[in-house]
Design brief:
Length: about 375
């Protein structure tokens, strides 16, 4: 179900605090050839390592490098990551912070016509609210839409002049069609989640024919989450989500993997030729594809950037960006031209990039 947001509740002048981001370079070989012995870090009962830089090894130099990375805004595995940043110390601004409310969590949809980023509060703190960041002024406006309060909107996309939201996960438009995913969040421990009207899967909505058609079933991806097309409109990307943070395992992990898949869209705009692009260390939530075909995902470690072939180029580090104890992992973000909008639960940052990674002309966001 989709909603066009219209009603204003309040506007706030953001307390902008600017500084330079810090970073650490980690040779890529350290991601797969660590000296023995080593131990991956798990903050919850899980069969995955939730944060790579918390790995402990028998090598003092590597441990020192990982400790420095834990405290840095980002860590890079490839020189291409510095091209994205425009250097090693890009400008980062703390735009808004709230101590007791996860106001910046999901959606991350860029309205490139008005240069605004729309985002939602956490589904973990029901009800969910939608807010709008004006990138020209850094003002944040919170919207009051009574019809959405019990829906918990969290997937958003700007499409043909309209901002669309889904109550259970993500959506993306290409040509005359809008793709969206549905994922029952109750097995993941989310309270107050919207009742699921469709089976878990990926669907195609045609505004012209007013029809909804299933295009990827649960048999193909157990837990479909983020969906995005690339700048060419040729490929559809989908994240599959398991729940390493669900300490009891349960349905959220049953026959499930944390992955990124790529499909080719055929002449009928249907996804074919499924390809595994990446296996994710913890889980993959928010998904964005930039103009260069790079894959950006919200993960336990933070915002991970991969090459089109799936190699990890770098990570914007959640450990340094989130402030507080026992916080849930980051879920989503926005890439808006040459800016990265970081939704860090109780904080919102804007980081200035060295490239225009998305554009109105390409329709990427």
């Amino acid at each position: 179900m989709f909603y066009l947001t219209l009603f204003l509740l309040c506007a706030s002048l953001a307390p902008v605090i600017g500084e330079n981001a810090t970073g650490v370079f980690i040779p890529f070989i350290e991601t797969y050839l660590l000296p023995s012995s080593f131990q991956g870090y798990t903050s919850v009962a899980s069969n995955t390592s939730t944060n790579f830089v918390n790995t402990l090894t028998a090598n003092v130099s590597i441990n020192t490098l990982f400790t420095a990375a834990k405290n840095a805004t980002y860590y890079a595995f490839d020189e291409e990551f510095y091209d994205i940043l425009g250097g090693q110390t890009p400008d980062i601004q703390l735009v808004q912070m709230q101590s007791s409310f996860f106001f910046a969590y999901e959606a991350g949809a860029w309205d490139y016509d008005k240069n605004q980023v729309w985002f939602t509060s956490s589904v973990l703190t029901h009800p969910t609210y939608i807010s709008v960041l004006d990138l020209r002024t850094n003002n944040i406006t919170t919207l009051d839409i009574l019809a959405l309060r019990n829906i918990n909107p969290n997937g958003g996309y700007y499409f043909n002049g309209t901002m669309y939201f889904t109550g259970n996960k993500s959506c993306v438009g290409t040509g005359p069609n809008l793709f969206f995913s549905t994922l029952d969040q109750r097995p993941f421990g989310v309270l107050g989640a919207a009742p699921l009207m469709l089976q878990d899967g990926v669907y195609r909505y045609s505004p012209q024919s007013q029809s909804v058609q299933g295009v990827i079933s649960r048999a193909d991806i157990v837990g479909p989450n983020g969906v995005r097309t690339d700048a060419t409109g040729r490929y559809l990307y989908v994240t599959g989500t398991a729940a390493p943070f669900n300490t009891t395992g349960g349905d959220g992990n049953t026959f499930n993997s944390s992955v990124v898949y790529r499909y080719t869209l055929d002449e009928d705009c249907l996804p074919v030729n499924k390809r595994l692009v990446a296996t994710v260390r913890s889980y993959a939530d928010g998904l964005h594809i930039d103009n260069y075909g790079r894959i950006w995902t919200g993960e336990w470690e933070g915002i991970t950037v991969r090459s089109p072939s799936g190699k990890v180029l770098g990570v914007f580090n959640a450990e340094a960006l989130e402030v507080g104890k026992n916080l849930p992992p980051m879920a989503n973000f926005a890439i808006a031209g040459d800016r990265l909008v970081i939704l860090a639960l109780n904080r919102l940052y804007v980081l200035h990039l060295g490239q225009n990674v998305t554009s109105a002309a390409a329709g990427t966001q």
